[in-house]
């Protein structure tokens, strides 16, 4: 087998997925027939994927990306030193249900799954770490743009496919102050939008928020940990109706409640 032949199966399919995803992000469409031929021509014997960027975002050079992709982005949903005891306790509670052990000693998926969280949505795509350095490289996800741990949005999300539910453990940092000593209402709305949108995406594919109604019941102390619980109400075509509640960690106090209508982003 020649070097060219060795990159005609799995590696080629991965490169096709990455490049096709990139073109979709940039608003271009490529016919599958011509795409397969073109991508094969861009994989070099050394295992490097070369993509022409002249027609994408006015970039007129050839970007050379290493293949296979191995760099892993930082996962912000994992515990760090800024997490308080309430945040860690709830994380461990749900994370322990992500994997269970059978009587035979085998491990399998549990009812909950932790969702990784990156500072750019692009990093969820194949080859996204490299693409994020090329496409608007200074852009950052709004809730993940602060370097200092614990200063702003500290959160982790878990989804339960069986119950069609999503929970988010959220610890509000000192940079999110609104009324003295309490969390800004806009920061709370941001987290509700993040959770409802993520849950709807998990259920229905890529969505964008069409409507979000929020009722603030009681203020959230700055630095405290709260639990956001999102549930599916119903689905109608491209529309996914969800509801969300923000409570203290044991659920005894309601801080905020909302209903959302994320709609399919595919036109």
Could you characterize the architecture of this molecule?
The chain has 267 residues and is of the alpha+beta class. Helices cover 24% and strands 29% of the residues. Residues 1-70 have low confidence and may be disordered. It has a domain at 85-264: Roll (Thiol Ester Dehydrase, Chain A). Strands 5-6-7-9-10-11-8 form a 7-stranded antiparallel sheet. It has helices at 3-6, 10-25, 32-41, 85-95, 128-131, 185-204; strands at residues 48-52, 62-66, 99-101, 107-109, 113-115, 153-160, 165-172, 207-216, 225-236, 239-248, 254-264. α2 crosses α3. It starts with a helix and ends with a strand. One of its GO terms (biological process) is apoptotic process.
CATH topology of the domain at 85-264: Thiol Ester Dehydrase, Chain A
Helix/strand-derived category reads alpha+beta
Number of helices: 6
CATH class of the domain at 85-264: Alpha Beta
- Round the mean pLDDT to the nearest integer and report it: 80
Helix fraction?
10-25%
What is the C-alpha radius of gyration, as a whole number of Å?
Answer: 21 Å
| Span of the ends, CA to CA | 44 Å
Which runs of at least 5 residues are low in confidence (pLDDT < 50)? 1-70
Q: Main beta sheet: strand number and arrangement?
A: 7 strands, antiparallel
- Helix and strand run: HHHEEHEEEHEEHEEEE
Number of strands: 11
Strand order of the largest sheet: 5-6-7-9-10-11-8
What is the percentage of strand-forming residues?
25-35%
Shape: globular
What CATH architecture of the domain at 85-264 would you give? Roll
Fourth CATH level, the homologous superfamily of the domain at 85-264: Hotdog Thioesterase
């Amino acid at each position: 087998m020649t070097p060219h032949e060795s990159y005609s199966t799995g590696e080629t399919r991965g490169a096709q997925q990455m490049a096709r995803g990139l073109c979709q992000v940039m608003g271009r469409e490529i016919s599958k027939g011509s795409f397969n031929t073109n991508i094969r021509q861009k994989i070099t014997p050394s295992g490097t994927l070369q993509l022409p960027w002249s027609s994408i975002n006015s970039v007129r050079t050839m970007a050379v990306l290493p293949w296979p992709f191995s760099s892993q982005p930082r996962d912000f949903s994992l515990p760090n030193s800024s997490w308080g005891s309430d945040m860690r306790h709830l994380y461990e509670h749900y994370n322990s249900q992500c994997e269970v052990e059978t009587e035979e000693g085998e491990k399998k998926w549990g009812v909950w799954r932790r969702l990784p969280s990156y500072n750019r949505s692009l990093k969820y795509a194949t080859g996204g770490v490299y693409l994020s350095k090329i496409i608007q490289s200074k852009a950052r996800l709004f809730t993940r743009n602060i370097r200092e741990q614990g200063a702003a949005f500290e959160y982790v999300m878990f989804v339960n496919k069986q119950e069609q539910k999503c929970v988010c453990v959220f610890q509000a940092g000192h940079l999110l102050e609104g009324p003295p000593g309490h969390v800004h209402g806009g920061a709370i709305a941001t987290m509700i939008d993040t959770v409802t949108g993520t849950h709807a995406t998990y259920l229905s594919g890529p969505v964008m928020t069409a409507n979000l109604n929020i009722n603030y019941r009681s203020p959230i102390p700055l630095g405290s940990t709260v639990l956001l619980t999102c549930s599916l109400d119903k689905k109608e075509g491209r529309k996914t109706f969800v509801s969300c509640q923000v409570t203290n960690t044991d659920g005894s106090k309601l801080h905020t409640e909302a209903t959302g209508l994320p709609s399919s982003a595919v036109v």
